[in-house]
Amino acid sequence: MGVIVITNDDGIDGAGLWALRDAVVGLGYPNWAIAAPLSQYSGCGHQTTTDRPIRVEQRAENIYGIAGTPADCARLAIGYLFPQVDLLVSGINDGGNMGVDIYTSGTVAAVREAVFHGVSGIAFSHYKLQDRVMDWQWASGVVRRVLSELLRRGCPKHSYWNVNLPHLGGSAEPPISFCPVSIDPLPNEFVAVDGAYYYTGKYELRQRSPNTDVAECLSGKVAISCISLT
Does residue 54 contact residue 67 with C-beta atoms inside 8 Å? Predict the structure, then answer.
C-alpha cells in the first residue's frame, strides 16, 4: 500500500488529528503522512487558495503544516508532497459532520478533493455534547475498528465514506450503521439585536428523519454513509 495521508480542518495541533494518526498506526500501516492546516478552518467548506502563495512548513519527516484550507492540503499532498497516495483520511473532527453539514465541512471537503484526483477518502467526525469532554483515546479505538472495516469493503468509484461517531461515556462499543445522508436543514433560528442577526439554533435539536445519518448518530451509533460525487 502507498501513503495514507492524514489531514483535518481543526489544524495540525488538533487532538483529533493525532487520534486519527494513532488509529492508522494501530492498524499497522507504516507509510503514513500528515498534511494539515496550520490554523483552524472549521466550516470553511470546499474553499481553495488560488490568489496567493501557500506556505508549507515541514515539522518532521512526512509531517507538514500548510497555511491553507483542508482542500488545499489534499491538493498539495496528492500533487506535490508525496509520490504515491492511496488513501486520504480526514479528522477526527471536533464535532459532527452529518447530513447537510457535509456541504460546509472542511473535514469532508478534503476527502472530496482527494476523490476528485482519483484517491480514495474517508472523513471522520465526532459528534460533541456540550457538557462532555472528548475522550480521544476512545475515539481512536472506534475509528481503528471502523477504518479496518471500510478498507476491507472499499468504496465505489467517484464516492467517499463519511463517518460520524456518537458521544458516549465510558468504554462503550457503539454499533455501526450504514445509512443514507439526511437532507433535513439545520435549525433556522436567529435573534436580531441592533440590526445584527445572531444564530441561536441548537445542533442537537435538528430534525432526525428515520434511519438517516443524523438519526443514527444521535441515537448512539457510528453513522457511516457512502457519498457519491455524481
Answer: yes
- The span from the CA of 85 to the CA of 119, in Å, is 7
DSSP letters for 64-124: EEESS-HHHHHHHIIIII-S-EEEEEEEEEEB---GGGGGT-HHHHHHHHHHHTT-EEEEE
Burial of 136 (C-beta count, 10 Å sphere; 0-12/13-18/19+): buried
Cα gap 207→215, rounded to integer Å: 8
CA-to-CA distance for 106 and 212, rounded, in angstroms?
A: 21
pLDDT tens digits, 96-146: 999 999 999 999 999 999 999 999 999 999 999 887 889 999 999 999 999
Half-sphere exposure of 167 (CA within 13 A, CB side): 17
pTM value?
0.95
Nine-digit cell string for 112: 472530496
Q: How far, in Å, are 8, 30, 121, 155 from residue 149 at the CA level?
A: 21, 18, 14, 11
Give residue limits of the domains in the chain.
3-228
Identify the three-state secondary structure at position 107: helix
- CATH superfamily, region 3-228: Survival protein SurE-like phosphatase/nucleotidase (3.40.1210.10)
